[in-house]
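Data deposition worksheet. Section B asks for the primary sequence of the deposited chain exactly as it was used as input, without tags or linkers unless they were present during the calculation. Section C holds the resulting structure in token form. Section D is free text for depositor observations; keep each observation to a single sentence. Incomplete worksheets are returned to the depositor.
Section A, Depositor: J.P.
Section B:
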Amino acid sequence: MGLLQALIIGIVQGLTEFLPLSSTAHTRIAPALLGWEDPGAAFSAVIQLGTLLAVLVYFRSDIARALRGWAKGFRGGSAAKTPEARLGWAIFYGTMPVSAAALLFKPLIEDEFRSLYVIAAALGGMALLLWVSELAAAHVRRLDSVRPLDGWIVGVFQALALVPGASRSGSTITGALFMGFDRPTAARFSFLLSVPAILISGLYELWDQRAELFAAGPGAVLVGATAAFFVGYASIEFLLRYLRTHSTAVFIVYRIALAALLLWLLWAGVLKPLG
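Section C:
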């Protein structure tokens, strides 16, 4: 993999990881449109470590408070009922569904699920689900009201993101809206919930696919991850500001339009489902 190709994929990764658009779909579609080979699930997972670093830097205070509260929560009593402790447990429980699903469906995730037909269906399906969540949401809850139950439920939505096209942020924001959170809080919870899942996935793929990644070139991986970090950080800032005064309608429309375009390109033979 050339450095320019890795740079472009890293930029696409960082831009779409935190917007409810699906980074996996875009890092699969962009190379296909440019005539490049699929970079593979392993490369996509590892450069996500760049976007993980963006979350860690941007939300360092929130993460530190959640970790301290979670640790103090083991003592029980009032320490386990603080907002920080509840947030820590919500993130812990929210990581379980996606971890279990990743192990169970790993062969499909790395092969059949990367079909452009699957991606098109997931883009459209999650757009409709996000639209329903906008209609049903109360938009009143803040992060200090989070409960472990919220972690479980939004964690189930996060597991949907294993299907390329669903989007980790799109699925978790959808789940958080269904739980009554306002839009900026839903996005914030989504980003915090992504930390353990991205870390586990990225480190696992880094070790498990080390031979394939070495063949792609360590420099390419580093360039992709670095680009994903800087663009991802900017994407976090943009989305949090945007959702303070706007709904997710623009992302819903974009997802449906992209799904329709993708299906047309497949029907016309411009793109192949796999490869």
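Section D:
The mean pLDDT is 87.
Residues 183-208 form the longest helix (26 residues).
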